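::Encoded backbone::
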Amino acid sequence: MNLITLTLTKNHLWSALSIAGLAGVTYLTNRYVKNTEQTSNKTYFKPFEINNINNIINPSQQNTHLNTYINYIFWNGDISSTYLLIDLLLQDKIIQPLYIERYTIIKELEKDKLENLLKDASRLKDSKGNYKNKNNTTFLNSIIALKKEQQYEIKQLEILRLMILSQYPEFRNNLLPTTYITTIAKDLEYTSKFYNALQEIKPIHCDGIDFIEQVGRFLKYYDKIRNSNNSNSNSNNVSRIILGCNKDYKNRELLIKLTKKNIVNIVNINMLSVSNNNISETNISETNTSLDMPVFDMDDKTVKFMAVKFFPNDIMQYFMKNDIELRV
């Protein structure tokens, strides 16, 4: 009887250990997969954009000819970035638009917090209908506003793409499908360095500067650009990364200060006669990219004037009708 009991006990023990071991492996695997997903760049294309072109150029197959090298532009549908995109298109350049879905990224990072806040919405208000926690209210309002802005911008990108290709059908293969960015690789060292510099600068205005940090972090781990730049020994033919920030950009002075501190690399900074002879070669080699801001020294009025003279009538009328402002 004791022998049978001992045998059963051993069997039960091994079964329990096997189940526990399997559960542990499953948990660790799931956690690893989740962490990997959150620390890698994740992007997607819209199917209708892919179907509207005949050929998608593989960056690894780019040659050094100026007209076939891809120009990457962060495009949010405002006048400034759209002006630059059309200008490149008319120069017969290959253009890869990029769009960071900031709401999608923040929602993922704050997923647990959002779930807890929205689990029981009635708890957010007191008996008089006033919000109990002002910080939670501010957070939720900012998330809602960001979501609306993102939906608006993405819709603008879709409409403008169709209008541009309608005006310039001969350049259909030059305008590649927009890369929509939903997750950006985490880099604690890079992010800490960026925000520590902000603390040292103590800027008057830094709302929205997180976009620049996201741009730099994304590019650092964007294999398409890194691989093409690393395989090209000609420094004149490295990937061009374009931003539509202009003279009236609210964080323009902050960008200049970040450049002086070697946190951001801006190609056009010399236009401002800023003393930046000590730009860190280490930073440049780490990301192998610099930000090109062709309208950095133009104000809103100048950009709008140039757009009026430059845009096809239909596109300009669309901007004026919808009162699309310069947004970065």
